[in-house]
Write a structure and sequence with these properties.
- By secondary structure, the protein is α+β, with helices and mostly antiparallel strands.
- The strands form 4 sheets. Strands 1, 2, 8, 9, 10, 11, 17 and 18 form an 8-stranded mixed beta sheet that branches.
- 30% of the residues lie in helices and 28% in strands.
- The protein has 3 domains: 10-75 and 98-180 and 278-353, FAD/NAD(P)-binding domain (3-Layer(bba) Sandwich); 186-275, D-Amino Acid Oxidase, Chain A, domain 2 (2-Layer Sandwich), CATH 3.30.9; 412-526, Glutaredoxin (3-Layer(aba) Sandwich).
- It has helices at 19-30, 55-64, 67-73, 112-123, 175-180, 242-245, 248-256, 304-323, 333-358, 362-378, 446-454, 483-491, 511-526; strands spanning 10-15, 35-38, 52-54, 75-76, 80-83, 89-93, 107-109, 129-132, 135-142, 147-153, 158-168, 184-200, 210-213, 220-224, 229-235, 264-279, 283-284, 287-289, 295-296, 412-414, 420-422, 432-435, 458-463, 469-471, 474-479, 495-498, 504-508.
- The two termini are 37 Å apart.
C-alpha cells in the first residue's frame, strides 16, 4: 500500500490487524467505507492465543461472510467441570441446550491463526481496504475534520495516512492509547500463568470437556480445542520465576503433573501475566480505542477476544451512520457508554472464577469446596456460562421499553428463494422492525414509515406458517423451529426494533408504543445537531 498526504482521505484508519482490527476492517469495508489498516507485524502469528468464542462473536463473523468457514473451523465447547482438592466435582458449567438463541452453538473453540488468515483473505476482496504490514505508528495528530497517522516501515520510510476517524486496535501495549495519554484502571487481578498448546496423536484419549483443577498445590486448566489441539493453563506459585518456569524441560515436567504426555507434541508454551484492566477513556474526539488496547480480562470466562469483537460490531455501525450523515457524531459517545460497563461486569465474573480456580490456601480451598458443592446440590449454582454475559444497560436503547438492551434472537428461516439459512443472512446491516405477524407493520404512521425508509431501515415479518417473500418493502419469512415466535410470546410483545449489531433498541405491544419508539430512536440519532 502506497499512501501519502496527497492521497484521498480514508473514512477510517485502523492501527492493528489482529482479529479485532481485522473484524472491524471487514465490517467497515463491507459497509462501503474506505479503510486503511497499519500493522506492526509482517505476518500472522502462526500459533494459537485465544481459543474460545461465543455465539455472539460467531454471529459477527457470520455478518462478515465467514459463517460457512466457521462451521468447519470450530468445535463445540462441551462445558467445564471444576475439580476440588479431592479431585471431585465442585462446580459445573454445562453447554446451553438447544434451540440456540443466536443460531450458533453458544460456546466453541477455534484455532486463532486459521481465523486471522480467513479474515485477511476476506478483507482483501475489498478494493477500498488498504493494508500496510510491517509498519508501526510513530505519530498521531487530529484536527476538527481528520486524523493524521504517521507510520514507519521497517526500512525506515515513513507513510502518512489521513482519515476521518482512527481506531486503535493495537493490543495491550497500544501506541494509540499511549499517544492519547489514556490511563488504565486496575481492577485488582494480577497472576502469572503458563499456557501450553499441544497437538495430540490420539484425539479420543481425553474427555471432550474442559477441566479446572482447583488444587492449591498447582491450579490448572485443560481445554480441548478443535481437531487435535489440546491446551493446558498452569498457575505459577509464589516465588516461582516466570523465565525459569517456561523453560522447555520444566514445561514437560509440569504437564506430566496433569496428564500422560506420550501422545502430545508441544506446539507452543508461553508465560503470561493475567491482568484485569479498564481504559479510563475510550474516545478522544476522532480517535477511539478497542480490544486489548482499552481493556484486558483474565481468561477464566473465555471472553477476552469476545469482548473485543463486541467492541468492533458496536462501533462499526455507529461510524457508518455518522459518516453517511444519518447520525450526529455524539452517537460515537454511546460506544464507551455501552461497552465499558459490559466489560467491567465480564471482568468481575472472570475474576470470580479465577479466584475459585487459583486458590492457594488449603484451608480456604476446603471451605470453598464445601460451599460450592452445597450450592450444586441445592440447585442454586448457575451452570450455564452464557448467563454471566450481561445485556446493555445504557446508551442507545429505549431503557424503559421491553427487551431494550437484549440480544435479538436468530432463528433459522426459509428464504424467499426456498433455501434455509440463519436470519441474519437475509438482513442488511441496518436497523430493522421485526414482527411475528403482518398486522403490526400497519401500526406505523406515515411519518414513521417515511423516516424509517430515510434511515434505510428494514421491515421484517417472521411467521411460523405461510410463504416467504420480499414485496412492498417488507421481507417475510417462515422460521423453522419456533424460536422467534416463542421469544415474542414469552415477552408479550408484537414488534421489536433491532439495531444493526442485533441488540434490541426496544419492543412494542401496540401502535402507540411502536411509533413512540421510532420517534425516540430518530431523536437519539440526531441529538447534538
Amino acid at each position: 500500500m502506497a499512501l501519502s498526504v496527497d492521497n484521498p482521505i480514508h473514512d477510517v484508519a485502523i492501527v492493528g490487524l489482529g482479529p479485532v482490527g481485522a473484524i472491524l476492517a471487514n465490517l467497515l469495508a463491507k459497509a462501503g467505507l474506505s479503510v486503511a489498516v497499519v500493522e506492526r507485524a509482517a505476518d500472522i502469528y502462526d500459533k494459537p492465543r485465544a481459543i474460545t468464542l461465543d455465539h455472539e462473536a460467531l454471529r459477527v463473523l457470520q455478518a462478515i461472510g465467514l459463517g460457512d468457514f466457521m462451521e468447519q473451523a470450530i468445535a463445540p465447547h462441551n462445558g467445564s467441570h471444576y475439580l476440588g482438592v479431592d479431585g471431585e466435582i465442585i462446580k459445573i458449567f454445562d453447554p446451553m441446550p438447544p434451540p440456540f438463541p443466536l443460531g450458533w452453538n453458544p460456546n466453541v473453540t477455534f484455532v486463532q491463526p486459521e481465523l486471522e488468515q480467513a479474515l485477511r483473505e476476506k478483507l482483501a476482496e475489498y478494493r477500498h481496504a488498504d493494508v500496510l504490514l510491517a509498519a508501526a505508528g510513530v505519530a498521531l495528530e487530529q484536527d476538527d475534520g481528520t486524523v493524521t497517522l504517521t507510520a514507519r516501515r521497517e526500512s525506515g520510510d515513513e507513510v502518512s495516512i489521513r482519515a476521518r476517524y482512527l481506531v486503535g486496535c493495537d493490543g495491550a501495549n497500544s501506541f494509540v492509547r499511549k499517544q492519547l495519554g489514556v490511563g488504565l484502571d486496575d481492577l485488582a487481578f494480577d497472576e502469572w500463568w503458563m499456557v501450553v498448546d499441544t497437538l495430540t496423536s490420539d484425539p479420543a484419549k481425553r474427555p471432550a470437556r474442559s477441566f479446572q483443577y482447583c488444587r492449591p498445590s498447582r491450579p490448572g486448566t485443560f481445554v480441548p480445542g478443535p481437531r487435535n489441539l489440546r491446551r493446558w493453563e498452569i498457575k505459577l506459585l509464589p516465588g516461582e520465576d516466570p523465565e525459569a518456569f517456561g523453560a522447555a524441560d520444566n514445561v514437560v515436567q509440569l504437564l506430566k503433573g496433569f496428564t500422560d504426555i506420550s501422545d502430545l507434541t508441544i506446539w507452543r508454551s508461553a508465560v503470561y501475566r493475567f491482568h484485569a484492566l479498564l481504559g479510563q477513556r475510550w474516545r478522544d474526539r476522532r480517535v477511539l480505542l478497542m480490544g486489548d488496547a482499552v481493556h484486558q480480562t483474565p481468561p477464566f470466562l473465555g471472553q477476552g477476544l469476545c469482548a473485543g469483537i463486541r467492541d468492533a460490531v458496536n462501533l462499526a455501525w455507529k461510524l457508518r451512520l455518522v459518516l453517511r450523515g444519518d447520525a450526529d457524531e455524539t452517537l460515537l459517545d454511546s460506544y464507551e457508554i455501552e461497552r465499558k460497563p459490559h466489560v467491567r461486569a465480564v471482568v468481575a465474573s472472570a475474576k470470580e472464577f479465577g479466584k475459585i480456580i487459583g486458590e492457594l490456601d488449603p484451608v480456604a480451598a476446603t471451605e470453598r469446596d464445601l460451599r460450592l458443592r452445597a450450592e450444586l446440590k441445592a440447585g442454586t449454582a448457575e451452570t450455564i456460562r452464557q448467563k454471566f454475559i450481561p445485556d446493555l444497560v445504557s446508551g442507545l436503547i429505549a431503557r424503559d421499553a421491553a427487551l431494550a438492551g437484549r440480544l435479538f434472537v436468530q432463528p433459522h428461516v426459509r428464504a424467499p428463494d426456498g433455501r434455509t439459512c440463519r436470519l441474519d443472512d437475509l438482513l442488511q446491516a441496518e436497523f430493522a422492525i421485526v414482527t411475528a405477524a403482518a398486522e403490526p407493520m400497519a401500526w406505523l404512521s406515515d411519518a414513521s414509515r417515511a423516516a424509517w425508509q430515510h434511515l434505510a431501515g428494514q421491515r421484517v415479518v417472521i411467521t411460523a406458517l405461510g410463504e416467504s417473500s420480499d414485496a412492498n418493502g417488507i421481507l417475510s419469512m417462515v422460521e423453522r423451529d419456533g424460536l422467534f415466535a416463542n421469544w415474542m410470546q414469552q415477552h408479550d410483545v408484537a414488534a421489536v426494533i433491532v439495531r444493526p449489531d442485533r441488540y434490541v433498541f426496544g419492543a412494542a405491544g401496540n401502535a402507540g408504543e411502536l411509533n413512540m419508539l421510532v420517534g425516540q430512536l430518530l431523536q437519539n440519532l440526531s441529538a447534538g445537531r
